[in-house]
Amino acid sequence: MINSDGAWELPHEFRAIQETARRFMREQVVPAEEPLPHDATKLPDEQLKPLQRKARELGLWQVESPSEWGGAGLNLLGQAIVAEEASQCKMGAYIPACHAFGWDPPNAIFLGRKDQIQKYAVPTLDSGEKTFVAISEASGGSDPGRAIQTRAEKKGDRYILNGSKIWISGVGESKWGLVFARTGPSKGRDGITAFIVEKASKGFEYKPIPVIRSYSPYEINFIDCEVPEENRLGNDGEGFKLAETWLVHARIPYAAAVIGIAQAALGLAIDWAKDRQAFGSPLADKQAIQWMIADSEIELRASRLLVYQAAWRGDLGQDIKVDASIAKVYATETAGRVVDRCIQMFGGLGVAKEMPLERWYRELRIKRIGEGPSEVHRMVVARNLLGGQRKRA
């Protein structure tokens, strides 16, 4: 909206959400996580439960889920605003406000039958527990429409799953998740079906994959894993259609969250530059430092506006596949550069574990791969332009 000075600004209701989330993080979450180990991934229950109750009271509980089922029901712009604020803590890169806002179940579940939503989504919305989405496979996580080889064979009133998934987040903490498997003869997207699979199912095996961050993804192996037909989500062969819109929209809060981390890092660096003396004057007086700070702020503002634009178009019901890819690439790559500059400004202290910067540096490196690597999103943008479908910004 345009304010009285003729400048663009967020509408009042979104600024109120932003301020509420910001205050909650600074006054409640950040102090609670301060004494935890450097690479901690969750607050202890005695701290977490009161924070979750507070988040419910503030209307910040399960922000991406429909209000009719118990979520906050925020639109994409609202989700982006909360994601940016919620990520500004030590554990912000992969643990949304240390679980304090709850883990939204994958929104594709809300395209299922009411009995499926009642059985699986509603208890998860209430508890705030994690779920998982198993799409990626070793054969190619960035091209799931053709790469999925896990099969689900129909036998009577059940499907028998065989195959494996890799790089799946949250499996160890979850009770159930969505699994995408091939059910038809097609080798393309129209042969994929979605299933609700309980982790306790016989033939469901999983193990963590150690990576550069402490929050490990998992490998899942399905060995004659039986799934009731009633747990099929949607129609046979239409699983990818269920996932596609959700996957595109998920890139908006994903991109917003990395902007929040980088903004927090820049805030630390600015404070440091003002206080740190070097060669007889504050670091802030050095042109090299000033330019790193200026470049970081410029790029973060550009990233934020790209995210807001994609969210706005999505909320209008427009196709945002290209917009989301642009926002995701620019935000994740910008965030990595900003944190790298901030470490440089801090010098040796920047890589010390008494600061969150080195942790953020490791975790943001993964963000350029997660939700589709930068190269794949560049392909999306290029194909749109070269295919003659270019849309005006």
Which helices and strands occur, and which strands form pairs?
Layout: H1 12-33, H2 45-57, H3 76-86, H4 114-127, E1 132-134, H5 144-147, E2 151-155, E3 158-168, E4 176-182, E5 192-198, E6 204-208, E7 218-228, E8 232-233, H6 239-275, E9 277-278, E10 281-282, H7 287-315, H8 321-346, H9 357-367, H10 374-386
Parallel strand pairs: 1-4
Antiparallel strand pairs: 2-3, 3-7, 4-5, 5-8, 6-7, 9-10
Explain what this protein looks like in three dimensions.
- It is globular, with a radius of gyration of 22 Å.
- Helix 6 runs parallel beside helix 8.
- It has helices spanning 12-33, 45-57, 76-86, 114-127, 144-147, 239-275, 287-315, 321-346, 357-367, 374-386, and strands spanning 132-134, 151-155, 158-168, 176-182, 192-198, 204-208, 218-228, 232-233, 277-278, 281-282.
- The chain has three domains: 12-127, Orthogonal Bundle (Butyryl-Coa Dehydrogenase, subunit A, domain 1), CATH 1.10.540.10; 132-233, Beta Barrel (Butyryl-CoA Dehydrogenase, subunit A, domain 2); 241-386, Up-down Bundle (Butyryl-CoA Dehydrogenase, subunit A, domain 3), CATH 1.20.140.
- It is α+β, with helices and mostly antiparallel strands and 393 residues long.
- The model has no long low-confidence stretch (mean pLDDT 93).
- The longest helix has 37 residues, at 239-275.
- The chain has a four-stranded mixed beta sheet, covered by helices on one side. The chain has a four-stranded antiparallel beta sheet with strand order 2-3-7-6, with no helix packed on it. Strands 9-10 form a two-stranded antiparallel sheet.
- A hairpin with a 2-residue loop joins strand 2 and strand 3.
